[in-house]
Amino acid sequence: MNEPEKSVKWQNATILALRFLIGWHLLYEGIYKLFNPEWSSIAFLGESKWIFSGIADWIASNAGVLNAVDFLNTWGLIAIGLGLVLGLFTKAAAISGTVLLMLYYLFNPPFIGMNTVVPLEGNYLLVNKNLIEAVTLLLIAVSPAVKLYSLDALIFNNKQKN
Questions:
Q1: Domain, as residue range, for 137
Q2: Sign, CA torsion 125/130/135/136
Q3: Are 133 and 93 in contact (CB under 8 A)?
Q4: pLDDT number for residue 162
Q5: Considering the chain, what percentage of its residues have pLDDT values greater than 70?
Q6: Of 20, 52, 107, 119, which is the most buried if we count CB atoms within 10 A?
Q7: Mean pLDDT for all residues in the chain
């Protein structure tokens, strides 16, 4: 095997690992929210200080809308995570994950002067895990390796053969 072939194999393996790891993270976040009766997005929404702060205030002040957002957030994380882990509808899961993570980022960006009351796991300036995972999911969505070792490859390759 020559160097370019080895390089492509490593790239594909890395994309597969990233797909699985981000999928696991999102899946676990969704499952945690599902089984934690205390969880609500209200604290996150209360921290919003940028362009979506008005929308965040509106969501937080309407119990029905807040419940719908919590439901969609929880089940969206679970569906996206499962899609990425299993490689099922991978491109759609990666794009949906990118959109969701960018919403998280835009509701609470790590900009100078936007300190939060809720403790964070680190200190960020412009770049945080949401942005990194969103860009990585975008890479996965556009990568030709998206169907490697996935249910998509089994399902869609079988359909093309029939």
A1: 14-161
A2: positive
A3: no
A4: 46
A5: 88
A6: 107
A7: 88
Is 4 a member of any domain? no
The per-residue pLDDT for 115 is 63
**Number of separate domains in the chain:** 1
DSSP calls for 22-88: HHHHHHHHHHHHHH-TT--THHHHHT--STTHHHHHHHHH-HHHHHHHHHHHHHHHHHHHHHHHHTS
* 9 within some domain: no
> Tokens 């919003």, residue?
48
- The CA distance from 133 to 71, in Å, is 22
b/e sequence 27-44, b meaning 16+ C-beta within 10 Å: bebbeebeeeeeebbbeb
In a domain, 62, yes or no: yes
Q: Could you give the CA distance from residue 27 to residue 155 in angstroms, rounded to a whole number?
A: 22
SS3 at position 113:
coil
Is the CB of residue 127 less than 8 Å from the CB of residue 110? Answer: yes
Return the amino acid letter for 43. Answer: A
